[in-house]
């Protein structure tokens, strides 16, 4: 059972150190959040799972980590300066500003007035000045998507890796959008992370690859614990497609506030590489692109038989890390009745995503022998590099189990007086709550198996 309300998740996230409001002690900054001690682990684990499946488990994808600050020319040529905007309306009565396409019945959500201005485009890109003189002559954009930096590195990657089509470039990193109305916790924020793959293919094979990536991405979300029944595919109607897209399928998820986009899988055709290429007349480009006089590159591949240069098509699965974190938290959240009016909150996260992989708990807080042994076990398990293992030295076993259920720790290992005699510990399973005695020597194998489950 997923969380019933966003408030339940927000409360758990704050209480247990997953997610905090940015600069809370100064009243916050709208549309920005920070990941706390457990949030950073969960987020890293989700990103690592994506990287493994996109780069390590494939033989046709390379990685990249590029700059956030972007030369304005890139975003001019890509069409973002002209078209990366949302329709903005002002309420003439209370001065609130809204996204026109988010309004119900054309009424101001704040005061209910229908006295609204006509929608006008509001560009979502953040600008910042570069260098010591802030006179507006030298500025850069904070990238609104990681993708453009992949396109501008296309030739560098090809030249350094000798890749031929089809192949992809994967990147995880921050993106910035000056959203008109950031809302719904980490769902719509102004600074977020994206996991993007640009997969370059020959024109003609693009539709086949588009179908492949939609299916593959849905399967990946299922592997992260997102149930099929919470996912839906939306084939974006032609009139709503982004300027670069021939077809986009949005992977929609039932967030606590409603069904919304978790990931978009777009067929960006040869628009972006074509836009960033010079001498477009020599090149076969199907998309309508503006003339580019500033680029000094030809972002194309040469056909070995015909010697012709062609700009590849690109399929882009683009997922939001923050929306992913929200989805897996929502799916994992569960309040279980234990009988006799008792209940527990448990995060049934897939073990590979759990912020803490195992908690080692000495039965008595102040018993040096038990505590020392607990640290010895912790160090052994930590040495496996499977993720964070910690000693929970609270002296209260029941409380420790409840705390670790709530943050999704797959196993708790209790060290008691019998451990000192026979080298066995109690393993308590988060999901079944069953406890069994195991040899310390078997713990490494047990943890490995658990994390592969
Ligand atoms: P939306 O329609 O919800 O604004 P979008 O279609 O503009 O999203 P894309 O440009 O396709 O989003 O970006 C790819 C992914 O990046 C989205 O699927 C989403 O997961 C994430 N993303 C986009 N904007 C935001 C945001 N403001 N906050 C958090 N994640 C975002």
Task: Explain the overall architecture.
The protein has 453 residues and is α+β, with helices and mostly antiparallel strands. Among the domains are: 6-68 and 145-270 and 312-329, 2-Layer Sandwich (BirA Bifunctional Protein, domain 2); 354-452, Rossmann fold (3-Layer(aba) Sandwich), CATH 3.40.50.800. The chain is built from 13 helices and 24 strands. The strands form 7 sheets. The protein has a 7-stranded mixed β-sheet with strand order 3-10-11-17-14-13-12. A 5-stranded mixed β-sheet has the order 21-20-22-23-24, sandwiched between helices. It has a 3-stranded antiparallel β-sheet with strand order 4-9-8. A hairpin with a 2-residue loop joins strand 13 (247-255) and strand 14 (258-267). The two termini are 20 Å apart. Bound molecules: adenosine-5'-triphosphate.
Bound molecules: adenosine-5'-triphosphate
Per DSSP E runs of 2 or more residues, the count of β-strands stands at 24
Mean pLDDT over all positions: 94
Q: Give the biggest beta sheet.
A: 7 strands, mixed
How big a fraction of the residues is strand? 25-35%
Shape: globular
Radius of gyration from the CA trace?
25 Å
